[in-house]
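Re: folding output
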Amino acid sequence: MKKHRENEMKTCVFLALLLFTSVSIILSWSTASTDQVPLRTYNKGNYLFGLASAEQQNITIYTDDMFLDNDDIIVIKDAQLDLNGSLLMTGNSTLILDNGILYPAFEKGEHSYILRDNARIIMQRGSKIGSGIFDFIIYDNALVNMSDSYLEKSITIDLPNATLHAVKSQIRSVWLYAPSRLQITNSTAEQLLCFGDARIVDSHIQSLVVAQNAYPIYVDLVNSTYDQLDTTNLGKGIVHIKWYLMVSVESQGTSLQGVNVQVYYAANDSLAAHQTTSSDGRVRFELPEWEITERGNTYLGSYTIKANKDETQTQESIILNSSKQITISMSINNSENPQAVLYTFLVIIGVLVLVFAILVIHFSKKQIKKKDLPHLKLHHIDEYLTTAWDST
């Protein structure tokens, strides 16, 4: 019986050693393979291009067409992918460039980048899509969303509802077709050819062409500049050159809340816009200086500003040829100003507290003197009796 137990224990020890050795070999193989293939990991349709070791060069060469569909996701983070093939995205697929570079490693015209359905490309943290002579087109509801990135490759935004949205980015060239949309904020672009709606805010465009004969389109440039604007074939398009107007309303140095600020076109006294001031006494408008249509250029930059509160109205005039700020002073009774009432109330409370403190100190001193008086009298009597006794 004892010998049988010893055999069982030996068998268990042998199996444990065998299991330990197998696990060690598997781990060493996985480590070696990670060092040799740092380019891609795969998990349920998600691809991650990047480094397994910081000592290795962070460039991946992928020689094949890359297909993304359904809910596939590719992330290129802190890395560069040289794609020697086409990029074809459909469904809800997503390509994320996070400080990443997508570079077309092929001869001109051999391949293309195509986005359809709800596919999207997200670029952020200094990412870039490299340039080349090939088609880069987004269709349907596809989206390219850029933040602090560079789109070196020319892109076409095609039918019916594709969108390019860029913030703090650089763009080389965009072809935009209605009814797709383009929105650029705090960015720069070399060339924009707009056959669809575009909103350009706080940006600079070197060359802007607006043309459309089939659809009414609207292109707004808000606090933005351009080197060249071509509206030769504007057709049904409308271009607005707009600026910011910041209005501050105050009374005796105090910001006024709840003031109705109305802005009128000086040319015909028609209402252009209106808002109500917030707690800081301010409102901000986007107002056109020029409206450009196929009929010609219409100047709209002369405005009258009216501020109304209760029975008081004040107005000012302004010429808007750039973004400007204006302060309107109103003669408002402080009793009608909630902030003034609050300040007055606090001052009164402060004065009352100060008077009360002075009275408390005054009466406290009187009480101390009354308590000390009997003590002083007894002290003098004691000294008198002591002196008299010594004299006898």
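--- second protein (sequence, then structure) ---
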Amino acid sequence: MKKKVLFISSTGGHLEELLQLKPLFEKYDYHIITEKDDANISLKQEYGDKISFLPYGTRAKFFTYLFLYFYLCLKTVYFYFKIRPEVIVTTGTHTAGPMCILGKLLRSKIIYIETIANMNKKTATGRLIYPIADLFIVQWEEMLNIYPKAVYVGTIGDGSFLSLRDKKEPSPIVQNMVFVMLGTQNNSFHRLLEKIDELIEKKVIQEKVVVQAGYTKYESKHMKLFGLIAKSEIEKYQQRASYIITHGGAGSIMTSLALEKKVIAVPRKHKYEEHVNDHQQDIIEVFSKKGYIIGTNGVEDLENAIQQVKTFQPKKYEPNHQKMLQTIENFIMSH
């Protein structure tokens, strides 16, 4: 009989990391739990009754968040007793915390993968789960300095989670087009689009510009914009792009690197209410220092970054994906 394994994470980059564990799913009696938003609802078509959703909330609206988090905790209890997992695997963040604590109390094994977005400091959920995790995995060797009992296996992901690869479709022809990605973060990032409009006017950007605007409401005569669409459609735009400008979301960066695209990343800023904190700057610094992307400190650096992009030769992103999968599989087999 297959072991019951629950894979759980928040939406966005955490979910992108979780889905890169897909080669493990069919080896177990698996179930996936994530937050429900417009970008994730298409996963129901792929996974059917193997996926469930928790309410999506942002800490930007504090009192609403408190109510939603209480409801999330109640649904967590319901899902736990419905699934009764022997092992819980999570890439974070706050959505997974209650499930890990409940699972530990009821003797489930906990596997926690600290996000690729951090290289030198703990996440809030990592700090909470580290003392109770049965296997705590970090993706950067530097993280062993702050999680000394963790296991370092390298970074996650070989792109096998990309829907285009699953379908074995031919790669779309690269066009003279820039693709802009604002992800699924539900705060506006209009400052970036305003800067891109300005650079189009100045003819710094001369290519066609297509924008995945997410929840950002913006009108432009220079750019084609759309909101939230299926991941497979986003991947097609990524593949067609000559280069990609993205917010500092780990998921947007990783999928672009998996498709071997040149990436310029611009952080959302907390002071402009574009995110609940400034962790996107940390994500960009991690990937930029490694030579994978052109990182910026803000929209004011975008013009200079675009001037660099044609001659930029990114370091190839080579995650240790098989070691990650094997480490998790070995642990599950032995417990």
